[in-house]
Write a structure and sequence with these properties.
The protein is of the alpha+beta class and about 375 residues long. It has 3 domains: about 1-125, PAS domain (Beta-Lactamase, 2-Layer Sandwich), CATH 3.30.450; about 135-245, PAS domain (Beta-Lactamase), CATH 3.30.450.20; about 255-365, PAS domain (Beta-Lactamase, 2-Layer Sandwich), CATH 3.30.450. The chain has 16 helices and 15 strands. It has helices at about 1-15, 35-40, 45, 50-55, 60-75, 120-135, 155-160, 165, 170-175, 180-195, 240-255, 275-280, 285, 290-295, 300-315, 360-365, and strands at about 20-25, 30, 80-85, 90-105, 110-120, 140-145, 150, 200-205, 210-225, 230-240, 260-265, 270, 320-325, 330-345, 350-360. The strands form 3 sheets. The chain has a 5-stranded antiparallel β-sheet with strand order 2-1-5-4-3, with helices on both faces. A hairpin with a 4-residue loop joins strand 1 (about 20-25) and strand 2 (about 30). The protein is rod-shaped, with a radius of gyration of 35 Å. GO terms for molecular function: protein histidine kinase activity. It catalyses: ATP + protein L-histidine = ADP + protein N-phospho-L-histidine. Keywords: Kinase, Phosphoprotein, Receptor, Transferase. InterPro entries: PAC, PAS, PAS-assoc_C, PAS-like_dom_sf, PAS_fold, Phytochrome, Sensor_kinase/Photoreceptor.
Length: about 375
């Protein structure tokens, strides 16, 4: 029965779809299945009786592979150990190995069985992935589950002034995020580690020279081949110039000599400049976040003003539209309006900007 069981065991090993080898206590190969022959090009006849490490492992891995086998011979087994083996035609094949102690019927260790997986294609794919990240035209960083940086591409170095050597192995949030954004950035990364990814999150990074760089970030969960999340990859965009431009745009609007307001796609006021305050006596604090048409337009003009704004939200802009607005003191002010669609950086309409002119005096004289 034991002989029959051993033959069945040998048959299962030889027909397995994974490369399997075995060594005795002296490191001499005594098992070499068909898949091992397929992967390496060495037949069973060539390998049996040879020293595994001396003959088939690359010089730079001889010591570490020998250590794995020695430990298994002492009962300390190893899973998921990566090492290269050289094929009969001189190519390198990358193997992911589980090294298991082999025992006789008394329980004594008589060798090691190594069950491998050919991960050459995966390693090549990972190297290509690393190359693409490194040469990408966007700053890309990665962290592990403890928040420690393990990816930092050339563009990230260019943008921040920190080299890969400066950053790898350090805590991203603790070392490179401004205090006021530490909690929110940590929140984004923590959610990505839970599988909840985030797009278009804005935050500042502090450069090596102490300057602030504004980053627009997509945070993506990084997964092991088993699907387990092992970190986060952040793909960024340096929006420092855009933020500076937006601030200049806001300054120009606020100091313009014409009343200017803005609404979002829901008709809620999100721009109200100084001249609009002067004209209506409503300070910005009273208006921002409120519905423009519902709260500040006279009933007889609500429908027509709403129509102008709705058309502008659809890309149909309007020039020289006259309508009245009621000031905080209850007076009527007549306004000549240009309604312009407001767009984001991708061209999507996100609201309307209205540039007005106070024509109250002109209307009065015409009457």
């Amino acid at each position: 029965a034991r002989i029959a069981q051993e033959r069945e065991y040998e048959k299962l090993i030889d027909t397995a779809n994974a490369p399997i080898f075995g060594i005795d206590v002296f490191g001499i190969v005594n098992v070499w299945n068909q898949k091992a022959s397929d992967v390496t090009g060495y037949t069973k006849t060539e390998v049996l009786g040879q020293k595994l490490v001396e003959e088939y492992i690359t010089d730079d891995y001889k010591t570490s592979v020998q250590e794995v086998l020695d430990k298994a011979l002492m009962g300390v087994e190893m899973a998921n150990y990566e090492f290269p083996i050289i094929t009969s035609c001189g190519q390198q094949v990358d193997i992911l190995l589980n090294a298991t102690s082999r025992r006789d019927e008394t329980g004594s260790i008589i060798g090691v069985i190594g069950i491998g997986q050919d991960i050459t294609a995966r390693i090549a794919q990972e190297k290509e992935y690393v190359r693409l990240i490194e040469t990408a035209n966007a700053p890309i960083f990665g962290i592990d589950v403890d928040g420690i940086v393990n990816v930092w591409n050339q563009r990230a170095s260019d943008v921040t002034g920190f080299t890969k050597e400066d950053v790898i192995g350090t805590k991203l949030v603790e070392n490179y995020i401004t205090d006021s954004f530490k909690d929110s950035v940590q929140g984004v990364l923590t959610r990505a580690l839970e599988g909840i990814e985030e797009s278009n999150f804005e935050f500042p990074l502090v450069t090596k020279s102490g300057q602030q760089v504004d980053i627009l970030l997509n945070a993506t969960s990084r997964r092991h081949e088993s699907g387990a999340i092992i970190g986060v990859i952040g793909i960024g965009q340096d929006i420092t110039a855009r933020i500076a431009q937006e601030k200049e745009y806001e300054r120009l609007i606020d100091t313009a000599n014409a009343p200017i307001f803005g609404i979002d796609e829901h008709g809620v006021v999100n721009v109200w400049n100084h001249k609009a305050c002067d004209l209506t006596f409503y300070p910005k604090e009273d208006v921002i976040g409120h519905k423009l048409v519902e709260e500040f337009i006279t009933d007889d003009y609500k429908e027509s003003v709403q129509e102008v704004l709705t058309k502008a939200l659809q890309g149909q802009e309007m020039a020289n539209f006259e309508f009245p607005i009621i000031t905080k003191s209850g007076k009527r002010v007549d306004v000549l309006l240009n309604a312009t669609s407001r767009r984001d950086e991708w061209g999507n309409i996100v609201g309307v900007i209205g540039i007005g002119q106070d024509i109250t005096a002109r209307i009065a004289s015409e009457r």
